[in-house]
Amino acid sequence: MHQAATTSSDTITYTGTAKIGDSSTQDVSGFVTILIQPMGNNSYMGWITANRSILTDAPNENTATLSARLWLSTTELTDFSVKWKNSAGEVLGSDKTLTVTRDMVNGSTLITCEFYHKDAQNACFRAGNVMTDNADEYVIVGEVSNLIGDKAATITGRIKNTRTNAIVTPDNVSWNAKAYKDNNELIKEVNSNVVTIAKSESDYGGTEHDAYVLFTATW
């Protein structure tokens, strides 16, 4: 875990094997970013809770419910509004609870929530949740290298066939990669399946922070 005087974060990663039907299995993995930040008099903290982050084609697993909660200092607020958006910036809803269907998730999709306190015109906080549709035939998986000390991290996107668990390389594939700080601020965008993030690009506020990358592949 990163050590800092006021603000820090850490990431829990998980892996496992999902059984599909009577005989088919699939390796699955994911991550949850744990944010730790100061709670001063003017500190907003938004949070998304989800009953699941991985969708399948099973009747009881093909939707997810995301709920938004907002705090000011140590007080939970109720007088706020939200805007849910997908990776393309399209507004998905404005209720504090959002139902995510498989049609809203293409492989893996980042769904963000913008929080607005009272009648404010500008968001006071943003949070995000990565949703994955394991029933899609193809998903993108990321490989991270050089994530040691102060070295820049290189993240490479690969296309995985969920039916065979094999990495595939389709013809004429076009890549796009967007790197974000853990507060959902865009760091950079490249038209490639490889992106490098320097420590100085992901950190802010004088403390260490995590970053994540959203890949899109079209063919």
Topology, pairings included?
Layout: E1 8-20, E2 24-36, E3 44-50, E4 54-55, E5 63-72, E6 75-77, E7 80-85, E8 91-93, E9 97-101, E10 108-117, E11 125-133, E12 138-145, E13 153-161, E14 166-168, E15 174-181, E16 186-190, E17 194-197, H1 199-202, E18 211-218
Parallel strand pairs: 4-11
Antiparallel strand pairs: 1-2, 3-5, 5-6, 5-9, 7-8, 7-10, 10-11, 12-13, 13-14, 13-17, 15-16, 15-18
Compute the number of helices. 1
* Spatial strand arrangement across the major sheet: 4-11-10-7-8
> What is the approximate shape?
globular
Low-confidence stretches: 1-9, 31-41
Order of helices and strands: EEEEEEEEEEEEEEEEEHE
Strand content: over 45%
Structural class: mainly beta
Describe the largest sheet. 5 strands, mixed
Report the strand count.
18
Can you put this structure into words, describing what you see?
The protein has 1 helix and 18 strands. By secondary structure, it is mostly beta strands. Strands 4-11-10-7-8 form a 5-stranded mixed β-sheet, with no helix packed on it. Strands 3, 5, 6 and 9 form a 4-stranded antiparallel β-sheet that branches. Strand 5 and strand 6 (75-77) form a beta hairpin. The radius of gyration is 18 Å and the shape is globular. 21% of the residues are buried. Residues 1-9 and 31-41 have low confidence and may be disordered.
